[in-house]
Each structure stands twice: as C-alpha cells, then as structure tokens.
Design goal:
Number of domains: 2
Keywords: DNA-binding, Transcription, Transcription regulation
Protein name: Helix-turn-helix domain-containing protein
InterPro entries: Homeodomain-like_sf (IPR009057), HTH_AraC (IPR018060), PocR_dom (IPR018771)
Organism: Pelagicoccus mobilis
Order of helices and strands: HHEHHHEEEHHHHHHHHHH
Strand content: 5-15%
GO molecular function: DNA-binding transcription factor activity; sequence-specific DNA binding
Largest sheet: 4 strands, antiparallel
Length: 332
C-alpha cells in the first residue's frame, strides 16, 4: 500500500523522537569518533541521496559534482527504486531506470544494493559511478519501514587515475583543466575504508538498527494510545481537504474544539505545529504531481492548495533541498 502523506508525517514524528533520545545522540557521537564517518537517521519518506542532493554527508568530490550541475544516474535510479519499494513512486520508475542503462546488483556489503528486491532487514550498500559507497540500514516497526541509518561516502579500494578518468568520461562533457584538477584532488581525498572494516561497521549499524526498531515500536504504541479523537478527526479532515484553502478555525471545527486548544494539543500530540503539518502534506502531494511533465510547477502548486507561488516557494524551501525544477529533473 502506498504511504500516505498523513502516515508519512506520523512516522516522521516517531523518527524525530528517536533522534532526540540521549541513546541515539550518544551512539551517533561514538560512531563518528570511532570511524570518522557521519551517521544520519532519515525517515524513509524523506530519503535523500548524497550526490544528487544537499545531503550533509556529501564528500568534497560530490559537492563539486553537484555544484557543476551533475547528478549521478546510479543514485537517481536507486532513489526511484527505493521510492517504489516504499510505495511512494509510480510503476514506471523502474522502467525509466532500465531505460537509462543502469545496472544494480546485490553481492556483498561492499557492493551495489539491489533495489528491485524487498529490503527485508538487510543493509544495502550502493556504489556510485565514481566508486563511492554509501550504506543504508533499514529501521522498522514490525513490517513497516520507518527510516534508514545511513553512513558514507567512502571508497573500499584505493582510487587510481585510470578510475578517475573513466568516471569523468561517463559525464560526456569536456571540463576546463582547472575544474578537472579540483575534482581529481577531491576524488583522491575521499576517505578509504578497507572492505573488512566496512563490513564490521555495517554489522554494528545493523545491530543498532534493531534497537531503534524496538524503540520505535514503543513510541508508536505511546502515540496510538495518547492521540485524542480530536487530533484523529483533524488529520482525517486535512487528508481530505488539503487542496482547499484551510484555516486553523476550519480544522479546529472539524476536531470539535476551540482553535486555541486545538493548536496547543495538535503540536503536543503530533510533534509539529498545524501549519507545518499542512505544509508537509501539501508538498508531499505536490511532489507526486511533479512526476507528470505535462503539468507545470505553478499548476501543481495551486492544485494541492497553495494560494500563491510565494507561499509555495517558501514552504518548499523549508522541507526540500532541491528546487521544484531540480526535483522534477530527477524524476523525468
């Protein structure tokens, strides 16, 4: 079943609660101190790939690639595959990946992760066209995929000049010598982790992901037991009416309580304010519409309930690292 925006926002609340625990902060700091690598916990509904986004874990090589306007077809194909796996992408996603000629196969913790198979509980490591690896470990509550623990980007073997030249040749454009020199310097500065050490790191993440899964189930139970009927009614109203002009009074009336008490109770229960929740909901629906190349960005924005492009652009920038145009380019 596709993950609805309402459910996605609900699960994101769980992930935010996990991130805020002392246990997670302690583990994140210890992992970074021990390995020298970043660790992030990303909601499955907001998953980003380092090379084709402004991900905080990007290496200098990927930052330069992104700045130059390049994105990796391998990363994009994997991202679409993950979205399809989670039920938030259309069935044409995998066909587009195949049409691009991208091959993804599953072998070991230091090779590319298969995106056309169920995630299960296994970590997935993918390798970009330049040989950089990034690993994702699923965090679940029962059978529901909630998030990924992510680390990277590293190489598992020594970079060579031949490998660098082959990677640049795949870009099909001619770069100035100065730009090539900067890219080459950044390429050879990428952290290198031997395969056996990388496998051990992945095992540590898998073990900790199981602990996070147990914690997330506890949080979900607490939320389910504590969510008042008024909040459930409000969420249902928003899911059915997000495309309309909605005020706080409208939702409070649907919830059956005063606007003041609704606003306070909604934030206490959901973890984010009513306006942010509605904004996230509309952006999530807009992203689906942007998969249609025949629909303009303006049309998509108004169709999901934004009353002006200024409001749409302001809200989009809050939650998305890419511009709407950049996001559409990764989907078509």
């Amino acid at each position: 079943m596709p993950l609805t925006p309402e459910k996605a926002a609900y699960y994101e609340t769980v992930i935010e609660k996990l991130r805020s625990t002392a246990d997670y902060r302690e583990y994140e700091e210890a992992f970074q101190d021990a390995t020298g690598l970043p660790l992030t916990l990303e909601p499955a509904s907001q998953l980003t790939m380092a090379l084709c986004s402004k991900h905080q874990a990007r290496t200098s090589f990927c930052s330069l690639m992104n700045k130059a306007g390049h994105s990796c077809s391998t990363c994009q194909a994997l991202h679409r595959g993950i979205e399809k796996e989670m039920g938030i992408a259309d069935s044409d996603s995998t066909e587009r990946s195949a049409a691009e000629g991208t091959t993804l196969t599953e072998k070991s913790p230091t090779s590319v992760g298969a995106v056309n198979q169920a995630f299960g509980d296994a970590p997935r490591t993918f390798e970009c066209f330049a040989g950089l690896c990034e690993t994702m470990v699923p965090v679940k509550a029962g059978n529901q995929l909630l998030a990924f623990l992510k680390t990277g980007q590293v190489m598992v073997k020594e970079p060579t000049r031949d490998a660098f030249r082959q990677a640049m040749a795949r870009l099909h454009d001619n770069k100035p010598d100065a730009q090539l020199s900067d890219l080459e310097q950044a390429y050879f500065a990428t952290p290198i982790v031997p395969p056996e050490k990388y496998r051990a790191m992945t095992t540590l993440l898998k073990t900790y992901a199981k602990q996070l899964s147990i914690a997330s189930e506890r949080i979900l139970t607490e939320l389910d037991n504590s969510e008042p009927d008024s909040i459930r009614k409000a969420k249902e109203y928003l899911a059915n009416n997000y495309s309309q002009a909605i005020t706080l009074n409208d939702v409070a009336n649907a919830a059956g309580i005063s606007p003041f008490h609704f606003s306070k109770r909604f934030k206490e229960t959901v973890g984010i304010g009513f306006a942010e929740y509605l904004g996230r909901l509309r952006i999530a629906e807009c992203k689906k519409l942007l998969w249609n190349p025949n629909l303009s960005i303006t049309e998509a924005a108004f169709e999901v309930g934004f009353q002006s492009m200024a409001s749409f652009n302001r809200t989009w920038r809050k939650f998305e690292p890419q511009s709407p145009k950049e996001y559409r380019q990764t989907k078509n």
